[in-house]
């Protein structure tokens, strides 16, 4: 089973103060790991290490037990601000990697249409990117990441720029895309409820230097996939208690 691991990684930028200190994290297929923590505690730095955009000063990043030194197709990344190609249609954006791989137009289109269906954009393949809303563009970014059939999906605040209503719909979409793809998923968010709703495991980080202070297993996302309504999950006593508990950890508040 595919397995991504950060093993005792530490990081500093240009010899400055340590940004991450001795952080270890495991993500296996079928897991949805969500990182929360105050601004500047090193969440994006951690994701960039996992993606291979940065290399740690100490410690190792391993995929299936082998150390990796850079980005790889098995680790797809979705950024907060989508970087879509405005001169290509929606479908061609989704199938961009297939185009680079020399796959023909008909097959590319078939792949793109299947993924556009997964992200709720069926029928929009011929649209130019500029005719899509922000939320739709974010879904194209997700479809493009899924096109590589990655073992791991790494997302840095993918829903951060969306309004509250769109964001709730996108959370369900992320859950179903995760469920359908089986990709081990790592997602950063500022939303505590979003973290609880999506995660199988929540990682709480704290700054100075960035480190993991708590790991918490939750099952609200699995309850959602099993058919329970979002409203009933978010109103349940277990969800409300977990939210308060998590806020206490993030802001290092004393438990009342
Ligand atoms: N390229 C860089 N060069 C120097 N310092 C950096 C660089 N990127 C980030 N930092 C510093 O490293 C620390 C962690 O930054 P990082 O972006 O990982 O935090 P974050 O938890 O993602 O914050 P946010 O929630 O605001 O996105 C911060 O103090 C930041 O200023
Ligand atoms: Mg960040």
TrEMBL record:
Family annotation (Gene3D superfamilies): P-loop containing nucleotide triphosphate hydrolases (3.40.50.300)
InterPro entries: AAA+_ATPase, ABC_transporter-like_ATP-bd, ABC_transporter-like_CS, ABC_transporter_ATP-bind, P-loop_NTPase
GO terms of molecular function: ATP binding; ATP hydrolysis activity
Keyword Membrane: yes
Matching Pfam families: ABC_tran (PF00005)
Ranges where the ABC transporter domain occurs: 4-232
Keywords annotated in UniProt: ATP-binding, Cell inner membrane, Cell membrane, Membrane, Nucleotide-binding, Translocase, Transport
Family assignment from sequence similarity: Belongs to the ABC transporter superfamily.
Protein name (database record): Taurine ABC transporter ATP-binding protein
Organism (species): Kaistia nematophila
Classification lineage: Bacteria, Pseudomonadati, Pseudomonadota, Alphaproteobacteria, Hyphomicrobiales
